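Field guide to reading this record: the first block holds the primary sequence, the second block holds the structure written as discrete tokens, and the final block holds curator observations. Each block starts with its own label. This record concerns Sulfate exporter family transporter, catalogued under organism Methylobacterium crusticola.

BLOCK 1 — SEQUENCE
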Amino acid sequence: MGRAAALGRYAAARLPGFALCVAVTAAASLVQALEERVVHHPYVEALVIAILMGIAIRSAWEPGPRWRVGIAFSAKQLLEVAVMLLGASISLAALVASGPALLGGIVATVALTLAASCGIARLLGLPARISILIACGNAICGNSAIAAVAPVIGASGDDVASSIAFTAILGVLVVLGLPLLIPLLGVSPVQYGVLAGLTVYAVPQVLAATVPVSLVSTQVGTLVKLVRVLMLGPVVLGLSLLAPRLRGAEAGAAGRPGFFKLVPWFILGFLVLAAARSLGLVPDPALGPLTRGAGLLTVVSMAALGLGVDVRVVARVGARVTLAVTASLLVLLLISLALVYGLGIP
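BLOCK 2 — STRUCTURE
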């Protein structure tokens, strides 16, 4: 009875804040559904809408202690569960299907973009954590990568909000502007598919950028994008090992970190689910619910992060973040073009 009572108190304390985050998530999902009905593609995803709604609510009303526990729980623990569930969407089949030359090119593109983006952000005077978030968002899969990396490196809600807000805006501009490069550069449908897969942030946005062009562009772009998303696993694992260095003297004072400090539980869960999926141990009927569950929890967490954001902090770094994201994206575009022409893609 004692354990049940404690569990009840634990849940009751978190319920108001959690319910608020769920309400924001429902509103954001409704906006995305309306967007899809009108323009047929989610140019601005529910994840972005949720964090912007959360920021708007926080700017007009500061949640009191009754709400904060549940909001903090949604922003941290639920996000960690979402990252773990993402492992079920990772399969080595896409890696094998891409071929060794294109696979190596995609890995090199992600690695070079990570290094260049992080370097640009640091040169602009941005802190290490937000620099890493911007780099991962540009190099891998935009908002989803930012959301997955944030708990690993201990990024604050302000860091995540800044990264996602400006990356989301630029991501939409890329989707709208990328087709203009077809006549300008004279790229073929296959070349354009590779270019879209390497530069556009989210899988739905790849479809929005390629479906109007050709079926071949859509197929190639989706494959390249999926392989690029697979890079999230190694990057998250690597960052979990490097995360103690971000804490500097604090980590040093605490002595040698244990294994579960170096590799958090949700990263281990991510790797276990990814391995199980690759080995065929995760049944196909379970993949849809797991993927949708991860996506839903991520949106709830983004709503929670938005509710904890001080908009004045975001505004102070806005210009530098915008410049860093823009410069990083241009670097990614140049690297991607070099890959397309360097591999001799027809």
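BLOCK 3 — OBSERVATIONS
The CA atoms of residues 4 and 10 lie 10 Å apart.
Residues 2-246+255-342 form one domain.
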